[in-house]
Amino acid sequence: MSASKVKIESYGVKIAVEVALPHQKQLILDRMKDVLPVKVETLAANRKTDHQFFIETGKKKKFSLFKGEEKVLGDTDEDLLLERLDSQIRLTVAEFAKDHVFVHCGVVEWKGKAIMIPASSYDGKTTMVAELVKKGATYYSDEYAILNKRGKVTPFPKTLSIREEASNGKQVEYPVETFGGKRGFKPLSVGMVLVTKYKKGSHWKPKILSRGEGVLEIISHTVPIRNDPEFSLTVLNKVVENALIVKSNRGEARRFVNTLIEFFEERVINL
Predict the structure, then answer these.
(1) Out of 46, 126, 173, 237, which residue is the most buried by the measure of CB atoms under 10 Å away?
(2) Does pLDDT of 28 surpass 90?
(3) Residues 221-266: pLDDT tens digits?
């Protein structure tokens, strides 16, 4: 492999990163273990890639990041640049993955069934996942639900990205073991799709949605919906075939999680 390039493949998506300094190559390869913790392969130098990133050196140890000809980030330090590269690689894989559909979701397993929490950034899905893990749920993801052709959730157990006030809202990465949790490994059928967001003073007032309503709620969080709408919709319809779709605002995750578990066991596990 060229000393100036990193080439990887994940979920059938081939990506090259041209580095500015030699040491960045190993940094990127090491980070991929957390960014894309499963299905990552290092490609040989002569393999063609579908997507290209470039890191350029600026003045005073500053760097710029490009995706193709588009400038993603400019004049920043190496740590921030690598963080942005991480998210851009994940997003690229999510959009173009082969035979899988990526949905912005938190996912845990509870007693053999998956709970999917589709949500945008800042809606609290990672907080919910962390609190469920503390209660004994098995961790699958805090960023993407990865759905296979049969509509089952496969693991994407990257580190949990927690925004902390002490770090001025900057994301800090934590292995799930930090919360006393464990990672899932097998594909799961979805027991519940929970459409929720934190709203101060809110109380749990669950509304059961139809399958069609459930798909519509998930679509807005489905990354490849524009790239491959037919396959995406086919998979989403399989997800909701036997899942309970529930919508409600909620209060603080720490207090709400017990209510959710009780509801889930009553309406899904004990059917």
Answers:
(1) 126
(2) yes
(3) 999 999 999 999 999 999 999 999 999 999 999 999 999 999 999 9
The number of residues making up the chain comes to: 271
Smallest Cα–Cα separation from 223: which of 90, 108, 65, 115?
A: 90
Task: Give the CA distances from residue 260 to residues 111, 206, 208, 251, in Å, rounded to whole numbers and listed in that order.
Answer: 14, 10, 14, 11
pLDDT band at 166 (very low <50, low <70, confident <90, very high): low
Phi, psi torsion values for 37, nearest 5 degrees = -70, -10
Mean pLDDT across 111-127: 90
Beta strands 5-10 and 51-57, pairing class = unpaired
Alpha-carbon span 179 to 181, nearest angstrom: 5
Task: Please say whether the beta carbons of 257 and 263 come within 8 A.
Answer: no
